[in-house]
Design goal:
Keywords: Ribonucleoprotein, Ribosome biogenesis, rRNA processing. This protein is 27% helix and 13% strand. The chain is built from two helices and three strands, in the order βαββα.
Length: 60
């Protein structure tokens, strides 16, 4: 699920706290806004092999 909430990309330099918005730009400084949600998974997941093996064992 993609998040619609965005945060100002320049908030550390321009603001004293994060500025959240739903638009593509910051309402206070006009900088671009980026997605505030973390990535849903890590492609280099070190435990992915073990998790998939457990799912296979539980399925059988």
């Amino acid at each position: 699920m993609k998040s619609d909430i965005r945060v100002c990309s320049a908030w550390k330099a321009e603001h004293d706290r994060p500025v959240y918005t739903l638009s593509a730009t910051c309402p206070e400084c006009g900088a671009s806004a980026i997605n505030s949600a973390p990535a849903p998974f890590d492609p280099a997941d070190p435990y992915g092999e073990y998790r998939r093996a457990l799912k296979r064992r539980a399925r059988d």
